[in-house]
Amino acid sequence: MFQTIIYLSAALVVVQAQDLGVPLSWKNFSNSRPYDERVSIAQTAIDTILPQLDNSTGEFSGNDGVPGIGYWQSGNVFSVMAIQDWLADTTTNKALVEDNLELVWGLWENYDQYGYNDDAMWWAQAAIYAYRAYGSATLLQHAIDTWTHVSNYVLTADEASSGSSPYKDVSLVATCDGKSMVGGVFWRPVEDDPGMNSITTGLYITLSAFLADITGDSKYTDAAIQSAQWIQALQINDDGILLDSLNGNNCSRSPATWLFTYNSGKFIEGLSVLANVTSNDTWNDLMVNVLASAVKSSAWEGADGIITEGASLTSNNDGVGFKAIFIRGLLEAWNRNPLYDDLRVLIHSYVDVQYNALLTQVEDGGSYSPDWNGPAQNFTTWGQMAALDPLTVAIATN
Ligand SMILES: *[C@@H]1O[C@H](CO)[C@@H](O)[C@H](O)[C@H]1NC(C)=O
Ligand SMILES: *[C@@H]1O[C@H](CO)[C@@H](O)[C@H](O)[C@H]1NC(C)=O
Ligand SMILES: *[C@@H]1O[C@H](CO)[C@@H](O)[C@H](O)[C@H]1NC(C)=O
Ligand SMILES: *[C@@H]1O[C@H](CO)[C@@H](O)[C@H](O)[C@H]1NC(C)=O
Ligand SMILES: *[C@@H]1O[C@H](CO)[C@@H](O)[C@H](O)[C@H]1NC(C)=O
Ligand SMILES: *[C@@H]1O[C@H](CO)[C@@H](O)[C@H](O)[C@H]1NC(C)=O
C-alpha cells in the first residue's frame, strides 16, 4: 500500500537550529579502550567472518545451514576491510580486498549482478575505499566506469521536460509535489521500472563526491549537487529523516513508515564529502540537520540509543546491513569536520553506545549478535557483518 504524502519541509529543516546535545538517556556512551586495542578488536571481528568467504564469487556464505549475506552486503564487507586498514594504517586486508574487487569486476559487468544500480554502486564504493587505503589505479577506474554507467539512470533536465528517457519505456514526470525530479536516480537499469529511491541516489551522491575529491573534475561535483538537491527537495520528512522510494512515473511513495537508517546514513556520508569539496555551508548545514535527527530517531532506537533495526537472530535480512551503513556514514561526517567539536562529541557518543552494546555481548572473543541489545549469540554471517562497521568506526571516533 503506497501513500502519496507531501513533504514540504526540507527548506525549513535547513534553517532550524539543531540540538547537538548528547541525550543523557543514552546507555554507556563513552569508552576508554586504547587505540591499539580498538584496532585489534575490529580486525579480530573481520578475521572471524573470513572463513565464510567464497573465493570463487567474492560473497560470504552462511554456516550451520543458514544462508549467507548475499551480494550487496558482501561488497560492504570489503568496504569495511579497506576502511579498517585506512584507519589503522595497516595493509592487513589489502590482498583480499583488492583480489576480490578485481574478481567480482570480472564476473559482473559494471559490478551489477542482478540489474540494480545500488548493487553496482555498493561495490564501486568499496573500490573507492580500497583506492583511498591502498592507491590502486585499477580499482579507481572500476569506480569511475561504474559511475559512468549509472549516470545514464540519473534523470536529466531534458528527460524531465520531455517526459521520457532512452533507458525507460514508461513515461516520466518532471515534478512531484511541485518539486523537480531532476537528479533522482533510478533504482534499476531495466526499462519498465520507473522507481527512484534515496539509497540509489545517496550512493550516487557519495560516489560522485568522492570522485570529485579524488580527481578535481567538476562534472562529479555538479552531479553530486544535482542529486543532493533532489533528496533535499523531495525525500526528507518533517522529522529530518530520509524517506525511501518515489515512483518517477506517477509520484507514488513508499509508506511514510519506511524509515531505514541507511538512507539517512548514505546521505550524511555523501553530503560530508560534498561539503568538504565545495566548501559550501549549505551542504554541511543540511548534513548536520539530518545527522542530529537520525542519531536520535525513535524510528530505530529506544531512549538508550541502541539501534534495533534488523535484529533477527534466525535469518539474514537487509535491515541488519542498513545499520552498518548508517554508522559508516557518521565516520565520514567525523572525518570531514575535524574542528566541529559539538558534532564530534555527538558522533563519538552515539558510536560508543553501539560499540559498548556490541562489546557487552561478544561471544568467544569475536562473534557478535545481530541484536545489538544482546544477549550474546554464536556466529552468524549477518550478525558479524553488521558489527564490523561500528567496531572499525570506533577506532577513529574515540
Ligand atoms: C578464502 O580466503 C580466505 C583468506 O585466505 C580464507 O580465510 C578462507 O578460508 C577462504 N575461503 C574458502 C572458501 O576457501
Ligand atoms: C504508480 O505506479 C505503480 C507501478 O509502477 C503502481 O504500482 C502504483 O499503483 C501507481 N500509483 C498510482 C497512485 O497510480
Ligand atoms: C551553495 O549551494 C546552494 C545550494 O545548491 C546554492 O544555492 C548556493 O548558491 C551555493 N553557494 C555558493 C557560494 O556557491
Ligand atoms: C575537509 O576535510 C579534511 C579532512 O578530510 C579537513 O581536514 C578539512 O578541514 C576539510 N575542509 C573543509 C573546507 O571542510
Ligand atoms: C559498558 O560497555 C562495556 C563494554 O565496552 C561493558 O563492559 C560494560 O559492562 C558496560 N557498562 C554498562 C553500565 O552497561
Ligand atoms: C555457542 O555454541 C557453544 C557450542 O555449541 C555453546 O556451548 C554455547 O552455549 C553457545 N553460546 C551461545 C551464546 O549461544
TrEMBL record:
Keywords (A to Z) from UniProt: Signal
InterPro entries, A to Z: 6-hairpin_glycosidase_sf (IPR008928), Glyco_hydro_76 (IPR005198), MUG_Protein (IPR053169)
Source taxon at top rank: Eukaryota
Signal found in the keyword field: yes
Signal peptide as annotated in the record: 1-17
Biological process according to GO: carbohydrate metabolic process
Family matches, as Pfam families: Glyco_hydro_76 (PF03663)
Keyword Signal listed: yes
Protein name according to UniProt: Endo-1,6-alpha-mannosidase
